[in-house]
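Final report, closing paragraph on structural work. Over the funding period we assembled a curated collection of sequence-structure pairs, and we close with a single example.
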Amino acid sequence: MIRFDDVTKTYMRGQNPAVENLDIEFARGEFVFLVGASGSGKSTLMRMVLKETAPTSGTVHVAGKDLSRIPSWRVPALRRDIGMVFQDFRLLPSKTAYQNIEFALAVIGTPRKVVRRLVPEMLEMVGLEDKGRRLPHELSGGEQQRVAIARAYVNRPSILLADEPTGNLDPSTAEGILDLLAEINDRGTTVVMATHDRTAVDRMRRRVVEMVAGRVVRDDAHGTYESVAPESVISGNLPDGAEDLDAQALADPETDHRDSTDDAQRSPDDRPGRQAGGSHRVPHDGDDLLDERDAHLREEDEAFAEDLHDPESAR
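Its predicted structure, as stored:
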């Protein structure tokens, strides 16, 4: 389903690679946790799956396709088969829960008859069938994340990438989100989740891949967050050198996105993009991982707003 063959990614000449000599495969239907300290390469890995950035050397295969052979005009079609869930939800604030999910279908031209069937199904699946008319600010953090998951999954992608999806949630709510992702995985979707959530990893006991300085140092079939592996940074077996390799993405001409998961762990003064005088770029303005649907949601919101029908009137 996802395969990296001797992949190295270097953002700036002369600097350490963000990912180095990566050889790993995620099989169809797997649930994989990506763990590691800040700058370990987790987000670079995800960017390459989304074809937001290309490896410096080596090849990346997704769903049987060599991404280096996919022309740019076919990338949107590739990304429609990859759902993306973020730590900060990325919901359109002026649209209801129903409309946020509906919008993800509208931007790819889904017929309205199909939309009217799929959106209620998704709201029911995430346990929000009675909250379709609520705006994001009227929902709790856990409910907003459920809407975001429904939006990412509404096209039934074969792959779902999740970047710290429980990072802003309390433990009880996070447990519900993990159960929802497990249900999606049980339906056949490959789930790859980057996380610092020790409780989630220990509870699920799924495959755990730990990265340190762009290399895989641990790959446990039914792992826990901490490990006896001598190269594990998160277990305290190896000092964290405070390397922030993913921050090098700022200098990559292909993308100026940042690692939202790792960036959240830094103090404001340490974050990439901080400029003299105290100004810095806000992650919501496009510095994080982006999938095609999220790009459409932000760029075309106003253009589509008048065209979207009232979801409640169709009921």
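Strands lie at 2-9, 19-26, 31-35, 57-62, 65-66, 82-86, 159-163, 190-194, 207-212, 215-220. The chain has one domain: 2-305. We thank the funder for supporting this effort.
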